[in-house]
């Protein structure tokens, strides 16, 4: 598929896709006879994984490191696993902190609701 179709499919801009190529996140993108980029479903799966890593807070530098390891193949499986495990652990910690913040907000909202009910009963 061409770059504009791929951009729509992945939710990324054409500029971002070209930037990802420059960074090495997207490599070995095929070209058609006219020299235009030609993306595959496998490219879409990879970009979706990149988007997921970004959405979970992985820094771009780490995503680039992961992509570099991925490009090196099977000998890097342990390193890639370690990188993803470290990210998972950081994400779990962040989720726990967010849950604590949510509970504090819920407690404050419950307090306000009690006060509003008292005012309404008067």
UniProtKB/TrEMBL annotation:
PANTHER family: HTH-TYPE TRANSCRIPTIONAL REGULATOR ADHR (PTHR30204:SF98), REDOX-CYCLING DRUG-SENSING TRANSCRIPTIONAL ACTIVATOR SOXR (PTHR30204). It comes from the Bacteria. Residues 1-69 form the HTH merR-type domain. Gene3D superfamilies: 1.10.1660.10. The keyword Acyltransferase does not apply. The keyword Coiled coil applies. Residues 88-122 form a coiled coil. InterPro entries: DNA-bd_dom_put_sf, MerR-type_HTH_dom, MerR_fam. CDD domains: HTH_YyaN. SMART domains: HTH_MERR. PROSITE patterns: HTH_MERR_1 (PS00552), HTH_MERR_2 (PS50937). Keywords: Coiled coil, DNA-binding. This is MerR family transcriptional regulator. It holds the Pfam family MerR_1.
């Amino acid at each position: 598929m061409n770059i504009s179709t791929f951009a729509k499919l992945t939710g990324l801009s054409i500029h971002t896709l070209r930037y990802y190529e420059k960074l090495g996140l997207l490599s070995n993108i095929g070209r058609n006879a006219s020299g235009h980029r030609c993306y595959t479903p496998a490219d879409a799966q990879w970009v979706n994984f990149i988007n997921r890593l970004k959405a979970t807070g992985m820094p771009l530098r780490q995503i680039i490191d992961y992509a570099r390891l991925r490009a090196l193949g099977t000998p890097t499986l342990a390193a890639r696993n370690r990188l993803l495990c470290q990210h998972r652990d950081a994400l779990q910690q962040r989720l726990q902190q967010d849950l604590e913040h949510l509970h504090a907000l819920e407690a404050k909202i419950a307090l306000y609701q009690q006060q509003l009910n008292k005012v309404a009963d008067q």
